[in-house]
Amino acid sequence: MSNPLRFQLAHTPADAAVISRVFDEVWSVKSMVSPEIIVASIHNGAYGSVVWDGVRPIGAAFAIVGKSLSHDAAHLNLH
């Protein structure tokens, strides 16, 4: 029997580290987005979450709302 998937909002440095590791594994890079940047962003209104299959992280999301330099409209930068 498989474990149900669980979505968890990121709030802590440990959560940010998981998001960073998932991104690095998926994109085959090192430090695509550092945990420190994720933590600082989340504490300032960004969105972060992890998808768990039991005890194993299988997905993550990180989004920052910002303002374009060329116009006043808000935009979303999503990983």
Secondary-structure topology with pairs:
Layout (H helix, E strand, L loop, with lengths): L4 E5 L3 H15 L7 H8 L4 E7 L2 E12 L6 E5 L1
Helix pairs in contact: 1-2
Q: What shape does the CA trace take?
A: elongated
What is the CA-atom radius of gyration, in angstroms?
A: 14 Å
Order of helices and strands: EHHEEE
Oligomer: single chain
Structural class: alpha+beta
Strand content: 35-45%
How far apart are the termini?
31 Å
Could you report the average pLDDT, rounded to the nearest whole number?
A: 89
Largest sheet: 4 strands, antiparallel
Number of helices, where a helix is a run of at least 4 consecutive DSSP H or I residues: 2
Q: Based on DSSP secondary structure assignment, what is the total number of beta strands? A: 4
Poorly predicted ranges: none
Helix content: 25-40%
Characterise the protein shown here:
The protein is of the alpha+beta class and 79 residues long. It is built from two helices and four strands, in the order βααβββ. A four-stranded antiparallel β-sheet has the order 1-2-3-4, with helices on one face. Helix 1 packs across helix 2. The longest helix has 15 residues. 20% of the residues are buried.
